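REQUEST FORM: STRUCTURE PREDICTION
Request ID: SP-0412
Submitted by: Lab K.M.
Chain count: 1
Length (residues): 303
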Amino acid sequence: MRFSPSDLRGLAVFRSIIENGGFAGAQIALGMSQSTLSFHLKALEERVGFELCRRGRRGLQLTEKGREVFEASNSLVAAVSNFEGRLGELRKEIVGTLRVGVVDNTISDPKLPIDAVMDACLRQVKDAKIELLVTHPQALMSELSKDGIDIALTPPMRIGPDFRERLFYHEMHSLYCSHHHPLFHVDRAALTSEAIARHDFIVRSYANKAEIDFYPDAQVRIQSSTMEAQAILILSGRVIGYLPEHFAKRWEDSGQMRRLSTPAQRYASPLVIVSKLDQRISSIQRLFIKELTRRCVLEKAIA
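STATUS: Completed
RESULT:
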């Protein structure tokens, strides 16, 4: 089949329904009635020749073919964005859509002002479109690989040869315990590495246990993929673990957490800019990277 303008409208409606968790969210996002959304979705299904999604007791669910269509359409969205950017460059303008994924719980870091970077992009680019995804590193790399986003800001992952990464920042982490944990009231002089290593740790599933380099005899009880999950489990008092210092500050200041590591045992977690190797960097993406690297302080990693 040849895609017509009406098919593209139907595809945009379909994507909005899925991205917004159903018809109610898409109605708000697109300013359309439910009957209009249903009309476009049904017309698209008739054109492709199969059902894309079903409504049931558990809400709207993609069919297997519908999921493939949705994921394949990411490449189309990326191509349109790149085309817009290329036209803008020919007119010596910065235009297009900026689709960025950021690792979770960076908002409290004053040295990583993503909000200021977004402000700079929106001020400098007329009619800029911004799509910002905040989630854990594995999800970011999944979205990047299937063209759901163009750039990911994440700790380094074990990525293949199809991606490029550029170091731009170090996020400082320290080891913490909860006020419910036995180590909370132990004298500082007694907090040796051996004493700390006797307790169960939580580590990030994607960090290859780099957080326990200072405690080689430590036992890892739990792995987590997000900082918020790691903080919750540390606050339970059952495990100890590393957290970004800016993120843990609220609980440290309130007396709910204690920093166990010495200054020499801080962990410098690198953050990198990741993009596809075969992807052409658009003008708006270059602007974002320029503003990001200009504002971030690349601290020297601690050996």
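NOTES: The two ends are 59 Å apart (CA to CA).
Reviewed by: T.R.
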